What does this fold into?
Amino acid sequence: MSDKEIKKNKVFLETYGCQMNEYDSELVRAILKKENYEFIADEREADIVMLNTCAIREHAHRKIYGRVHQIRHDRMGKPVMIGLLGCMVTNLRQELLEDHSLKIDFIAGPDSYKRLPDLIREASSDGTKGYDVTLSEFETYSDIYPTREDRGNPSTRPSGSLRVNAWIAVMRGCNNFCTFCVVPYTRGRERSRDPQNIIDEVRRLASEGFKQVTLLGQNVNSYRYETHDFAYLMEEVSKVKGIERIRFTSPHPKDFPDRFLDVMANNSKICKQIHLPLQAGNNRVLEMMDRTYTQEEFLGLVEKMRSRIPGLVLSTDIIVGFPTETEEEFEDTLKVISQVQFDSAFTFKYSERKGTIASKKYPDDVTDAQKTERIMRLNELQKGITYKKNKAHIGQTHTILIEPAISDKPSHNSVGRTDGNKLVLLSQNGYRMGEMVKVKVTDATPHALKGHPLNLSFHPSSC
Ligand code: SF4
It folds into this structure.
């Protein structure tokens, strides 16, 4: 029997990269389940293995190539179809199709998932490679209700327990073309979903027990549908009964009108937390990145946000070693970090992405040793700030939303998150996922808070 003759209905899907990819995998599950495909957790039993890839991280393609070879090797000759999905395939389609050692059966870009059943059929019927990496100006998948994986172990979750967070893509694509970023090339132009369609999805999620929704988009706060902006959408979502918390990611600093900040400040369901990517603190570097703001404008925005939204928790993204970045220019980034005092930061060493403006215009001339030295200094600085910010919560009272336990072991205590998204390790276990618990913070580490529950009327071990 050849690879192409087997009945291919058991699918193993592995997801790399960001939350948008996780969400897309939920869409893929919904699309294929409707066609009677079954998703399984053991890749060795699968007829089809699909890797939902990411193009953001350095050497992402090498990792995927290695994974494909490993899957074929582990099968020891047992037939399997392999399909690649996601950002990497849009970026490297030619290379993937021409590399015969990989033996990829089908390829689908981020706007082609509805065609997956056809692509699989094409690949399995006559052996031609099924591929579609067309980028759409309209596709938002608003007619698909994603099959969300229940995080947490059902066998240890008490019956009747609530679910926690659902991701909802409200817009896709990006028009910004920051010079280092592949997203506008791999995911196409911005397009937003009809707000009514989003509200319907949120209502359904609430009826299924979800307590929190996180609105997703590559440039989420540039959401625009007819006359409706992101502030309108957030307000409408907050009216859905049963949803206790609303978060969003990832915004761009250029899209924060005062009206949106006021909606955030005055709506108790919208979490007082913003991930605000700075990327660099030096004006020349920011201009080369085409981030459209200066250091001064960014600092002004932070000041305005904090004055309008008391208790706001801020996090950021930083790239060190952008082409031609000097030591003094890097120190501008450190100065901004010290001044803003972000609660946390995701830090990256610059690395070229094929097809981006930076890869065509600027030689990657900061050495890896310099980048490593800079990122270590940056991380050290941020670690101290994060620890200091966490310690400032000791003695404070927060309401936390209980999340899936870090471990299934009964000895592990419950965990939850504050409105500002700080992880809190509780001094007791047995709380139900999705429950809101009032806690007093008793201690802090650089990574989390420790807290004691104050909901004395409820004693978890008695339930
Ligand atoms: S805003 Fe810039 S960094 Fe963010 S997805 Fe768009 S191009 Fe990439």
The first strand starts at residue 10 and ends at 15.
